[in-house]
Amino acid sequence: MGVAAAKEIQVLARLIRESARTLALTGAGISTASGIPDFRSRGVGRWEKVDPMEVSSVQAFQRDPAAFWRYNLKWWLEFADAEPNPAHHVLATLERRKLLQGVITQNVDGLHVRAGSQTWEVHGHLRTCRCLGCGGRYEFTFLVEQFQAGKNPPRCPCGALLRPDVVLFGDMLGDAFEQAVQVLHGCPLLIVVGSSLQVYPVAALPRLARRLVIINRDPTPWDDQAALILRGDIVQVFEKLAAELGFSD
Known about the structure:
Number of domains: 2
Radius of gyration: 19 Å
Helix content: 25-40%
CATH architecture of the largest domain: 3-Layer(aba) Sandwich
Number of strands: 9
Strand content: 15-25%
Order of helices and strands: HEHHHHHEHEEEHEHEEEH
């Protein structure tokens, strides 16, 4: 990572130690080391190849639910085999050591929850699904088993369609986002990790914090507001941060 990056790690560790309260805001970039492709990185992002409004929106689901599931379930199932990587685990350790209050995440992969972090999943998650008719809730595996048995689109026992408990394009954000706004308001330090900060309203959250650190491969619209920017590999950044703070898990 070089000498300059090492100095940046020292600054980051100092900012965390001195902050009365710190939160993290994470995006897809933190999970790429777990084998989950991101969405907006130049040349490799999923949304560079396809318009999300055409395949992953409320409108797409309503227009052709079977096509919606054929496209989306294939890559959502990749999350099932993914494991938290060292960056997820270091964030959870920071929380256990009272250096981090919790993680606000745009990710639906559930890896922060599995790593042990207190997590506000503002775009939902893939642990459950719900019925658009009776409102019943089921484990996501209930839906997956139907699809894999050839039943597409998957349905509730009442006959109505099932949908994932994720925020689709065109959806309103739910309670987790409102909770994140409340917990973040006036926060002394926000560490943004692996987010392009391009998807609103989540991209506006940094304005609620007093000080901002950005750890991301590519530039973001908030870079000129950040007290510190780290461009290194995210896992390496957190491994070196853990060493600087005196722990390695």
